[in-house]
Amino acid sequence: MTIIPKPTGFMQELYKFKDKEIPEFDPRTGDHYWHIIANWKVDPLVWLKGDSHLDSENLLTITAPCCYYCERFYTPLLAKRRCKGGATSE
Ligand SMILES: [Zn+2]
């Protein structure tokens, strides 16, 4: 398993799965939305049929916790700060 050290900045439209459960950023609260990104090896032809399984046998990578809104990795200091809601260089 590989820990990826920083966010890639790449976004891709999800096949099958929607991110509608992720709430819009609320600047009034400044709450971060912590998540983890994982990657699995799949056979696209099997995956598109809906027969593929995402489990530990084909898990390739998993990242450290990152905020969905500001795209910064978790640190105790960042968690104490308000989320700015967008990717920043600070
Ligand atoms: Zn954030």
Please give the largest β-sheet: 2 strands, antiparallel
Q: Report the radius of gyration as a whole number of Å.
A: 15 Å
Q: How much helical structure, as a percent, in the residues?
A: 10-25%
| Sequence of strands across the biggest β-sheet | 1-4
Shape: elongated
The gist of it:
The protein has helices spanning 44-49, 76-80, and strands at 34-35, 38-40, 59-62, 66-67. It is built from two helices and four strands; from the N terminus they run E-E-H-E-E-H.
Walk me through the topology.
Layout (H helix, E strand, L loop, with lengths): L33 E2 L2 E3 L3 H6 L9 E4 L3 E2 L8 H5 L10
Antiparallel strand pairs: 1-4, 2-3
Bound molecules: zinc ion (ZN).
Zinc ion (ZN) binds next to loops.
Describe the structure.
- The protein contains two helices and four strands; from the N terminus they run ββαββα.
- It has helices at 44-49, 76-80, and strands at residues 34-35, 38-40, 59-62, 66-67.
- The strands form two sheets. The protein has a two-stranded antiparallel sheet with strand order 1-4. A two-stranded antiparallel sheet has the order 2-3.
- The longest helix is centred in the middle third of the chain and has 6 residues, at 44-49.
- The radius of gyration is 15 Å and the shape is elongated.
- The model is unreliable at 1-5 (pLDDT under 50).
- Bound molecules: zinc ion.
